[in-house]
Amino acid sequence: MRSITNQLRTIILNRFPEARESSDLLRFLVQLLSRKLNDPASAFFLPHLIQQQRAPTYDPYEVNSWSISNIIDGMSGTFTKLKITGLSNASVQGLPMVSDNNVISGDGVFLKALKQPASIHITGTATLIQNDNGQRLSGAFSADLTEATVRVQIQLSDHGDQIQADVQEIRLHPPDKLTDIMKVSVNIDPNYDQFLNARINQNHKLKLIYEKIQGELTSPQTLHSFSELITKAINHIA
To answer: By C-alpha distance, which of 146, 150, 211 is closest to 179?
Structure first.
């Protein structure tokens, strides 16, 4: 049997009497939670839980600005008033593992739980700045990510009479070719848009935007918010 604190063992057995039949209490708990998060008929269906998050909301999720150096060769970019949709279309992929120090490690996948939306969609305003003379071009910006998986790590512990879940990591799995799953569009000037979009949609330039999305997922605010989401769910699924 996995080594867990007596308090955590007591909490699990009190909340889930059926767990007495299991030789691994945490594995029992993780399997139960995964099923509930992936079940559209469950009150703990993950897309619905994410849609219910507040302060901040995560679908849509708003970002004040991103600054990206050399987003196009010779030009840096500032992206403002960003709105990201589609993050609630998420599910647990496969069976998470539980380590001996009570850390859950598993994969999440976006855009599979619901038929729509079919992409993580980002809109905002782009300002492109010439590095040599400071000339600015501004216009609409959008990006679509049609596939995304993440690695998630969660530390389980006891807190009073509650099970505490601390999300330690939400990390995207970057594909070899972002050009297969990601497209960016800037609409600044009909005379330049084709040129600018051809360059911003190169794999190494898309990676710069992808890393900004990663930064939002690993921010302390996001990790705290999803810790609260999982803690609440794991304490109420009985």
So the answer is: 146
Within a 10 A sphere around the Cβ of 223, how many other Cβ atoms?
17
Indicate the angle between helix axes 25-38 and 220-234, nearest 10 degrees: 100
Q: What is the pTM of this model?
A: 0.94
Place of tokens 């007596």: 6
Q: Is residue 44 part of a domain?
A: yes
- The enclosing H or E element of 38 equals helix 25-38
pLDDT tens per residue, range 128-154: 999 999 999 999 999 999 999 999 999
Structural domain count, the chain: 1
Domain CATH number, residue 198: 3.15.10.30
Mean pLDDT of the chain: 95
Position 192: which residue type?
Y
Kind and range of the H or E element at 227? helix 220-234
Distance, in Å, from the CA atom of 45 to the CA atom of 53, rounded to the nearest integer, reads 13
How many C-beta atoms surround the C-beta of residue 38 within 10 A? 18
Residue 1 counted as domain residue: no
Q: How many C-beta atoms lie closer than 10 Å to residue 129's C-beta?
A: 18
Q: Of the candidates 164, 135, 145, 11, which has an alpha carbon nearest to the alpha carbon of residue 76?
A: 135
In our burial notation (b when 16+ CB lie closer than 10 A, e otherwise), range 60-84 reads bbebeebebeebbeebebbbeebeb
Q: Which amino acid is at 216?
A: E
Pairing status of strand 103-110 against strand 90-98: antiparallel
Handedness of CA 214, 137, 141, 174 (dihedral sign): negative
